[in-house]
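Sample intake — ATP-grasp domain-containing protein
Collected from: Marisediminicola antarctica
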Amino acid sequence: MILIVSFPDNAHVERVLEHLDRPTVVFDIADFPHRTRLDARFGASADRISFTPHGQAEIPLEQIGAVWYRRVRPIGLDPALTDSTSRLFAWSESTEALTGLWHAMECFWMNPPAGDEAGQRKIRQLQVARAVGLAVPETLITNDPAAALEFISARDEGGVIRKAFRNIAEAPRSTAVVTADDRARLDDVRYAPVTFQEFVPADLDLRVIVVEHEIFAAAIRSEPEYRTDYRPGIGSAKFSEYELPDEVAAALLALHDRLGLAYGASDFRVTPDGEHVFLEVNPGGEYLFASDRTGQPVPQAIAACLSRHDREHGT
């Protein structure tokens, strides 16, 4: 059996479901513990661990041969539990139980929760990317205004971009070139670390999807106004299939191996002299905006990977 840990109305999951040839269950963490039952029994007889997702039959853990863990929602506590201390305790206990459940699933994961968590950390990504031989931009991540000023001043005007670790809805921050106004506010860096990177001029951007050992690279040619960040200009961009140089492909697979990722969506820039510069990898990154425009069979590859591992598990 294949377990997909995600949430309803997820287009990326729905597309993969169309191609799966094995029994599959979708589990939304937001249903636990309010609407999902967990049973883990240990003693003199054999261990027995199972859970029953909302509206579905009980699932013994040994039946699960492959898990796709993708963009989960927070745990959902019973609304009847209103006391703040009680809710905190229930959340803590539920988190511990659910984490233990994940570790008890000795099967193929795309991606293991721990790998997913560590893999999305930008400092670790860049550290490992350099170690495996990928080119990365000159980067400074700091909460020291003096260090930020020194990094920016060492480069021509327009030669540095700033970016956030995460673009949260409550405080959106786009990736942008550092301006004179930004320089005037550099003292604010002391409030929270900021990522500064040398701007990488590019002939094109790449979105590179890795599904275990398969690589699907898409070239993105954007309008000039989106030269800093292609994402706002996806609608007008031109997409085409792209083949990574062998050495870049090998280094990217090594990055995935070091980070413990079976799936990842990476962004690269290809400079005018042909250098492939790695920017970041997103362990739960989207693929449809690229695969739908290039015709690359990413949903089929994910489904085939999960099905293959489920069969090999012998369930």
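Post-analysis note: The first helix runs from residue 11 to 17.
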